[in-house]
Amino acid sequence: MAEVESLPDAAATRALARRVALAARPGDAVLLSGELGVGKTEFARGFVAALAPDAGEVVSPTFTLVQGYDAKPAPIWHFDLYRIERPAELDELGLDEALARGMAVIEWPARLGARLPPDRLEITLEFGPTPDSRRASLTGFGSWRERLARLRAMDGFLAEAGWGKAARAKLAGDASFRKYLRLNRDGESAVLMDAPPPQENVRPFLAIARHLTGLGYSAPRILAADEARGFLLLEDLGDDLFSRAIPAGADQAQLYGAAVDLLVDLHRHALPAGIPAWDLAPMLAGAELLLDWYMPEFGAPASEAARAEFRRLWTEALERALAGRQVLVLRDYHADNLLWLPKRHGHARVGLLDFQDAARGSPAYDLASLLDDARRVVPRTLAAELRARYVAAAGIDAAAFDAAYHIVSAQRLTRIAGLWIRLLRRDGKPGYLGFTARTWELLEATLIHPALVDIRAWFDRNLPASLRARVPKGMSDAA
């Protein structure tokens, strides 16, 4: 059944197009039907502007028949098929190639005949009761059926929260099914987390966010929530991620020092109730991503004996690292999830994101996540100084912590080496392959620690240097 929307003016048509564009994916086709002058090109303008804001003027390709635009997440091809008379002409326009490489917005789609793309959104525009108004009927096919329903649910949530008319812009996502939009309304902003169930569950994020803000830390405040449908409206903490602020001139030592000091303080607090354990079982399963994804990818699957030895060695090492007091572990504590908020004071200067997987675990884990970061360089001297800073402030045994640190760091890097391949093969996300070389550089440096001598020997026997730091054939290793 078609979804029907009333559009009072051209701005409303463009706003609808922007909302549709933010739900679009590579391989999609948006088919625009309607009489001459009804606003199909106006819709195309809004669609292109949402994903390619620097594209300049968008005009109907009435005579050229097709116009391309560089956009993210994929190129956009705007087709006007009004002058097409024979199906063979579609081949000359490169429609199939456009859908293989990017997204297509197609005016006069009746000319396609039977060549309708499977993942498509059909939109029919009609003249409304006033000169400027229009009526849009939207019907989704293939994956667009579910996405259109999700878009309508999002519209309803934002309307109930008072943000229904806010402008929307896509924010960078992560390796999960979650998506983020920045909303702007009358000079104020907020962030929408779109976390569709069953793949995602917003309840852990809500619980940890409330725990962290209750302790005085700068996690986003919850402005509105629909737990069942997976929508959260969050305080907008801005764009000054550590990963942006430091290249722009911020003092890396100051920012990372503040992040370490926050960990010291966080680890002094009691654990919140009901959080899962980041202990032997999940950490061992995480390390096995190397066996399950990385090694088979390069023609070196682990034998049953090698797998059994891998599990035994990691079990021994992790039991040593996990002995002692457990703390709240945020798990993705690194420069892409930390914001610098210099106008705030104390530990609140460090903004916290992406903590929905928080658990109880080793005090060393988040420090290793911060300092042994596969996505960016933390100078070795600075990392050593910050480890010493944590140990001194926490008042703990330096040798025991040093061993635990290197063990959990090696586990994390081993997991990530396999994760990059899983993201490629299972989830269709090749962009993380560019971190492969640094992942292995850090892992090899960590394995030098005496606590990991047996695990290092396992790597030498089963994954020699020729099989490390590799990316699949035909895939770029550039991030």
Overview of the molecule:
This protein is an alpha+beta fold and 479 residues long. The chain has helices spanning 10-21, 40-51, 88-93, 95-101, 143-160, 203-214, 242-245, 252-266, 280-287, 289-297, 304-322, 364-371, 380-394, 398-425, 436-446, 453-462; strands spanning 3-7, 29-33, 66-69, 76-80, 103-107, 120-127, 134-141, 167-171, 179-185, 188-194, 222-226, 231-235, 327-329, 338-340, 350-352, 359-361. It has 3 domains: 3-142, Rossmann fold, CATH 3.40.50; 168-235, Phosphorylase Kinase, domain 1, CATH 3.30.200; 242-467, Aminoglycoside phosphotransferase (APH), C-terminal lobe (Aminoglycoside 3'-phosphotransferase, Chain: A, domain 2, Alpha-Beta Complex). It is built from 16 helices and 16 strands. A hairpin with a 6-residue loop joins β3 (66-69) and β4.
What is the top-level CATH class of the largest domain?
Answer: Alpha Beta
Lateral strand order in the biggest sheet: 1-7-6-2-5-4-3
Largest sheet geometry: 7 strands, mixed
Termini Cα gap: 42 Å
Q: Assess the beta-strand content as a share of residues.
A: 15-25%
Which percent range fits the helix content? 40-55%
Number of domains: 3
Number of helices: 16
Question: What topology emerges from the helices and strands here?
Answer:
Elements: E1 3-7, H1 10-21, E2 29-33, H2 40-51, E3 66-69, E4 76-80, H3 88-93, H4 95-101, E5 103-107, E6 120-127, E7 134-141, H5 143-160, E8 167-171, E9 179-185, E10 188-194, H6 203-214, E11 222-226, E12 231-235, H7 242-245, H8 252-266, H9 280-287, H10 289-297, H11 304-322, E13 327-329, E14 338-340, E15 350-352, E16 359-361, H12 364-371, H13 380-394, H14 398-425, H15 436-446, H16 453-462
Parallel strand pairs: 2-5, 2-6, 4-5
Antiparallel strand pairs: 1-7, 3-4, 6-7, 8-9, 9-10, 10-12, 11-12, 13-16, 14-15
Helix pairs in contact: 1-2, 8-13, 9-11, 9-14, 10-14, 11-14, 11-16, 12-14, 14-15
